[in-house]
């Protein structure tokens, strides 16, 4: 199957997931708004949801890489012996992780709810204990997803976001009148159940029969590869918790909720485009790495990074310029008022620059493929330290926008560290000259797009969807001539080694 078709299939699935996520956000904004009650719910969900997101993003490629390495060296039967063992061990491990989270929730609630009243801290702890179930569910479904991706089953597992959000809407709508804010916690758990139900039939259909050992010999290597990723996940969860702690101290009502809504909007473009490309690239990267062809890994990484600039830079510019009308279009309904729109848009403008560096997802895939996941720890440490330091400096003066900008600055530094580490473990840099050329050319097209949007805003206050369409059209028109490499890759990416 061509890489183009693989990426397109994953992109369609993620596009459906994005549509479902937007629908869930619309429902949440309309029904719950942004106030003290939603701040408590979103604070309760932040660590379990961050762990779930990290597990869902990082665990499947780790499993894919190990599975493909075994398949290349020892054949498909031995690979499937590992594939039968992994979900069972994952069920035990992630049950223990979730249980530890439940026990630690009262302590975490006191740390994150320092500005809350005692009764609010108790409610926060109770909500958090329930929400840790998503970690258990995400762990099992992510292991199965990684095995299916190794077998190049990409479309159905990539529908997990759509399934989770559709199930979440249904659960929240059914329980909101009786449970209030707890319905959002139940919605997160229901989404985790939906993810697991989605992948189990495909796994059962692909699974080869044979003896299943609880601890496959290759599991030690898989645990060794994933342990740094798990620790990095804790660092990223701590980063999210630090941001929520800072946001809870902002005088504006609903600041934590504003940050959460902004994150959901900001995360859509990289999840739809760059993550889809990374999922499609990983099997080929893993095969080349297992064969010792690091030059091909560097080439595929260059392709992925150039395409991440091609998608991320115009998305960053457009989102920064259109933050307020985009938030108003998506969220300003029901209990979500104009003040909530202004607070969320401020945070979103701060987050927008980070989109230019969404290629860190491609670098992570390369680390998985080469079995050098310890390199990811450097990225996580820079992310946590940068967000904590820069966020603290900016939040007092700029509020939610300062927190978002602090995240973007830390994200850019983390990207640079990841690129340097990639050069070290891959035996050389990607095509730096090509990357700089692509970044500059894409930035020029994005600048022309920004000028067109600015001119339209002065001459004609068009609806936001018209402005989005115009901006995209202008960018693509100029990119057709100024970015020939990216344009050609967007059309003709293939999975063969001559990509």
The secondary-structure element order is HHHHHHHHHHHHHHHHHH
Strand content: under 5%
Mean pLDDT: 85
Q: Ends: how far apart? A: 13 Å
Could you give the count of β-strands? Answer: 0
Low-confidence blocks of residues: 494-499
Supply Rg.
Answer: 22 Å
Describe this structure in words.
With 499 residues, the protein is mostly helical. Helices cover 84% and strands 0% of the residues. The chain has 18 helices and no strands. It has helices at residues 3-32, 36-74, 76-112, 118-131, 133-150, 160-179, 182-206, 219-248, 255-266, 268-290, 294-321, 323-331, 338-351, 360-370, 375-425, 432-459, 464-482, 484-492. Helix 2 runs parallel beside helix 10, helix 11 packs parallel to helix 16 and helix 13 packs parallel to helix 15 (375-425). It is globular, with a radius of gyration of 22 Å. The chain starts with a helix and ends in a 7-residue tail after the last helix. The relative contact order is 0.12.
A few lines on this structure:
This protein is mainly alpha-helical and 499 residues long. It has helices at 3-32, 36-74, 76-112, 118-131, 133-150, 160-179, 182-206, 219-248, 255-266, 268-290, 294-321, 323-331, 338-351, 360-370, 375-425, 432-459, 464-482, 484-492. Mean pLDDT is 85; it is low at 494-499.
């Amino acid at each position: 199957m061509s890489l183009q078709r693989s990426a397109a299939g994953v992109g369609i699935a993620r596009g459906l997931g994005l549509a479902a996520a937007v629908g869930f956000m619309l429902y949440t904004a309309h029904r719950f708004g942004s106030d003290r009650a939603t701040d408590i719910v979103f604070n309760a969900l932040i660590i379990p949801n961050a762990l779930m997101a990290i597990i869902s993003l990082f665990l499947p490629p780790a499993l894919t890489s190990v599975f493909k390495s075994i398949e290349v060296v020892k054949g498909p039967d031995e690979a499937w012996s590992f594939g039968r063992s992994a979900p069972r061990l994952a069920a035990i491990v992630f049950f223990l992780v979730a249980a530890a989270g439940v026990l630690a929730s009262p302590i975490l609630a006191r740390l994150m709810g320092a500005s809350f009243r005692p009764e609010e801290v108790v409610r926060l702890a109770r909500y958090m204990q329930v929400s840790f179930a998503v970690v258990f569910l995400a762990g099992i479904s992510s292991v199965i997803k990684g095995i299916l991706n190794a077998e190049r089953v990409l479309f159905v597992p990539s529908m997990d976001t759509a399934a989770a959000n559709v199930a979440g809407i249904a659960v929240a709508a059914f329980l909101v009148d009786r449970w209030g804010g707890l319905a959002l916690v139940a919605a997160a758990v229901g989404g985790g159940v939906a993810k697991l139900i989605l992948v189990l039939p495909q796994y059962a259909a692909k699974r080869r029969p044979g003896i299943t050992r609880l601890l496959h010999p290759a599991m030690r290597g898989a645990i060794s590869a994933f342990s740094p990723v798990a620790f990095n996940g804790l660092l990223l969860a701590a980063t999210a918790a630090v941001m929520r702690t800072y946001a809870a101290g902002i005088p504006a009502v609903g600041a934590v909720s504003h940050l959460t809504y902004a994150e959901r909007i900001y995360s859509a473009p990289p999840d739809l485009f760059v993550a889809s490309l990374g999922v499609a690239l990983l099997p080929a990267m893993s095969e080349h790495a297992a064969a010792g062809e690091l030059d091909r890994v560097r080439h595929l990484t260059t392709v992925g990074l150039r395409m991440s600039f091609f998608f991320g830079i115009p998305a960053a510019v457009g989102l920064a310029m259109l933050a307020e009308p985009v938030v108003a279009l998506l969220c300003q309904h029901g209990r979500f008022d104009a003040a909530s729109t202004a607070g969320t848009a401020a945070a979103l403008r701060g987050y927008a620059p980070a989109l230019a560096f969404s290629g860190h997802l491609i670098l992570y895939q390369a680390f998985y493929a080469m079995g050098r996941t310890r390199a990811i720890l450097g990225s996580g440490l820079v992310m946590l330290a940068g967000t904590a330091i820069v966020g603290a400096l900016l939040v007092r003066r700029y509020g939610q926008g300062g927190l978002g900008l602090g995240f973007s600055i830390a994200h850019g530094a983390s990207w640079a560290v990841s690129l340097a580490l990639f050069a070290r473990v891959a035996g050389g840099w990607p095509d730096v000259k090509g990357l700089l050329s692509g970044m500059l050319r894409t930035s020029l097209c994005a600048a022309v797009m920004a000028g067109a949007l600015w001119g339209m805003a002065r001459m004609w206050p068009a609806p936001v969807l018209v402005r989005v369409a115009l901006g995209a059209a202008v960018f693509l028109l100029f990119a057709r001539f100024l970015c020939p490499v990216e344009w050609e890759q967007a059309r003709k990416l293939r999975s063969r080694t001559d990509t």
